[in-house]
Amino acid sequence: xxxxxxxxxKQAKQMQEQMQKAQEQLAxxxxxxxxxxxxxxxxxxxxxxxxxxxxxxxxxxxxxxxMLEDLMAAAMNDALGKVETRTQELMGDITGxxxxxxxxxxxxx
Length: 109
Description:
Elements: H1 2-28, E1 30-35, E2 40-45, E3 50-55, H2 57-61, H3 65-95, H4 104-107
Antiparallel strand pairs: 1-2, 2-3
Helix pairs in contact: 1-3
C-alpha cells in the first residue's frame, strides 16, 4: 500500500510540473481574433493579455464609432474564445480528463 501511495504522489508531482510548463507556454502563445472579415484584429496571449489591435484604415474614414465599437467587441470575443479553446486543449492533454471530475476541474485552471 505504501508503494502505491508513493507512486501516486510521484504522478501528482509530474502533473504539477507539466501544468507549470503549460502555464508558461500559454503566457507566450498568441491567438488572433477577427471581426468584419478581418478588418478588425485583436492579438491576445493565452493568459488574456492583449498584445495588439489592428483596425483597417477604411473603418476610420466612415466615422461610425458605434460600428467600430461593435467590431472591436466581436474581435475580442473571438480571440477570447480561441484562448479558452487552446487552454482546454493544452490542459486536457496534461490532465487526461481529470478536469471532468466535479470540483477538480476548477483546481486545475
